[in-house]
Structures are given as structure tokens and as C-alpha cells.
Amino acid sequence: MSIKGLMLIGTFLFCAVGALFLPYLGIYGYIADYCISPSRQWWGLPFSAMGIRFSFTLALATFAGIVLQRHNLKFGEKVIYNQETTLLIFLGLIWILFAISVDTIGRYSSIDHPSLKVTKIVIFSLMMTHVITDIRKLNGLFWVFVFVSLILGIKAWETPYNNFLRGRLEGIGGADFAEANFFAAFMASMLPIIGVQFLRSGWYGKILCLISGVFTANAVILCRSRGAFLGLAFGVIAAGLFAPEKHRKTIFIFIFIGLLGTVYLSDSFFTDRILSITVNQEEMDTSSSSRIQLWKAGAKIFIAHPMGIGPGNWYQTIGRYLPEYAGKDSHNTYIKCAVELGVFGISLFMFLLYQAYSNLRSVYKSLDVLPPEEADDFIQYYFAITVSLVVLLACAMTITMIYTEIVWILLMLPVCLKRALDNRLLEMDPNTKLETEP
After folding, report:
1. 3-class secondary structure, 27
2. Among 92, 115, 111, which Cα is nearest to 103's?
3. Collapsing DSSP states into helix, strand and coil, what is residue 361?
4. What is the 8-class DSSP label of residue 264?
5. Within this chain, do residues 269 and 382 fall inside the same structural domain, yes or no?
6. pTM of the full predicted structure?
7. pLDDT one-digit tens code per residue, 327-371
8. Which one of 73, 75, 136, 315 has the fewest beta carbons within 10 angstroms of its own beta carbon?
9. Phi/psi of residue 333, each to 5°?
């Protein structure tokens, strides 16, 4: 057995058994498994052949740990925050639409139907928001993201060019990241998190984050994804707007160095794809123009079916409105959400985005009572989560990710941050009146 295989099974056992006593270890292990998908790597195949289901086992161990350690868990203001309630309503809507819509044909015969996948996502997200409830555990989760980004970045760097598909890096990471655009969006959204961990760390941590950041940025470039480039462009703007005053100069220097590094690592293929971004119909390449056509067709479907066509039914419907693109994806998270889940679905999704931002702002505005050093910790996490969400949600304008788990993990991190602050304020003064959640 390889050293990597032994490290995998050792880490898996540590997280699975440890989750019974420290449930956050199960959260860390689950997210690492989701991002890397060791069962798809050569060093993980022997365990996959044994029938070991890493993610299911880790989720089950985490749930058992929550039950066993329920008296030690701290839920802040209340057991269910408003953003979590909206998430449950969103899940309920999906199941209602699944029950009343036509059957989904073919597309999800070998993978989970969106209704089942979102159910799993919601269960894990709620476990995460009830376990990652203090700044120390959130810090641990951020380090998990740094490590998985490094591992995936090295994997991308090691992949020979002749394994690329149409000159683009494909098949790296978990099932949600198998396609270049999805992988690029994920790696791009990790860059703000890596950057903040760099700011917060000593020299050893800074070196690790620097290496992780370089490999992560290189992986984004290898994907040649215009959607990821768009996300990073919005991320740079968000970083400038939300940069904490104490670290503003350092963050601007990082952005400048990052831009220089991108230019250095870029090749003509990447540059040509980025320069092909245009709104001029005559100058668009085939890929860009097809997306415009798909979005227009999506708008027609939404007008014809404002209550939604049902989760997972885009692929069997688009051909009736755009025959030449039958079975093609929407290439837009918001359009697909509106088409499949209707006016209520897109409204709930946008309300979730509003609640996430409101929770982040609520944290930011409530830090005056904390010691400056602690307040700075919360400010940095507020900044990282905000920019990371901006990057991913901007990518979602050209990439369909409504049923992609990382979107919901990042979207629920504001609840983790708010719970962490609420718990800290209650520790300082049990009679503290917490700010009402949006």
C-alpha cells in the first residue's frame, strides 16, 4: 500500500472516530473528502474497492457526534437562525416541485437527482452551522481549505498537458469539480481564504499559504475559464471595497502581486480566451454566443412556466425552445434556478444571499465590544467570506452551480461566523442582548 494510501486511511479514521467526541473533526474530514475525492485518486482506489464510503461515513459519524455531544454544543442566539430556516424552506420547495412536476428523464440515472442531492447538502450544511460555532473551529475549517487547495493545485501542476481536454485542465478534484469551469470557480473562491490565512499566520503559516496560493492561482489559469476570470475580477473589486482598514495596504499589495503573477503564469491560450469576453454579438466565439442563446431560451421557459418546470428538468426541456441545443446546460446558476424552481425558488435563493450578507454585516457592526485583537480576527473572517462569496457568485453568472455543494457551504459560513460572535458575546456576558438576525 502506498504512503498516500496509508495517510488517507489514517486521516479518515482520525476524523471519523474523532467526530464522535469532537464533531468538528467530521466536518473537516467531510469537506476535505468532498474537495479532493480520494476514492477517485489512484491511492484511494483500494479503499473504494473495499466499499468504504468516506463522505457517508464521515457525515454519519458527525451526526452521531452531535447527538452524543449535544450538551457541549453552543448554538448562540437560538438553535435555528433565520438563514437556516430559509434554507429548509428552499429544500421544501424543491421537494414540492419534484412531487408535482413531470418525471426527470435520463440525466440523473447514475447520479443523485437534484432533490436528493440538495437534501444531503442541507443536512450537512446544518450540521456545519451547528458545529463550527467559534472562531477556533472556523480557523481550522479555513486551514482545511488551504490544504485541499494546495493538494489540488499540485495535482493540477503535475497533470501532463496531453491529458488536457481541448487545452483545458479537466478531471481534477471531487465530482462537483470534474469539469474545468467548476474546478476553476472553486479554486478562485479559495484565494481570498488563503490570503486571509496568510495575514493571520506566523512565518510557517505564511510560507504554506504562499505556496498554496501560487499553486491555486496556477490551477485557475490552467482551466482557461472565462467564468473564473469574471469571478476574480468581481473579487478584486470586492476586496477593494471591503478590505479592513488595518490591512488595506497589505491587501492592495497582494492584489497587485497577484495580477503580476497572473500575467507571468498566463499563456497565449489563456489570454486569447479572456480577450474573447465581449458583449458584441459579431465578435463572440461559438461558446459565448451559444450561452446568450441558452439564456434567452431560459427566459422564455420562465415566462411560460413561472412556477418552475421542476428540479433537474432543464435538460429535457431546453430542446423544445432551442432544438439545436437540446440537452445542453444553461451556463447560468440564476437562470437555471428560476427556470427549474420558478419565481418562488429564485426569490428564496436571492433572499438567502441577502441574509448571508446581512449576517456578515451584523457581525461587522457588533465588534466594538470585543478586545481589538479578537475583533480583528472576526473582521478578517468577515472579509474572507465576503470576497469568497462574491467570487463564487460572480462565477455563477456563467457557470451552473445551483446544485453544487460548495456554493451552499460558503453561503452558510456567515451563520457560522455569526454564531461564533454570539457565543463569544454570551461568554463575556450571559445577559448580553444579541442583535436580531435578518
Report:
1. helix
2. 115
3. helix
4. H
5. yes
6. 0.91
7. 889 999 999 999 999 999 999 999 999 999 999 999 999 998 899
8. 136
9. -65, -40
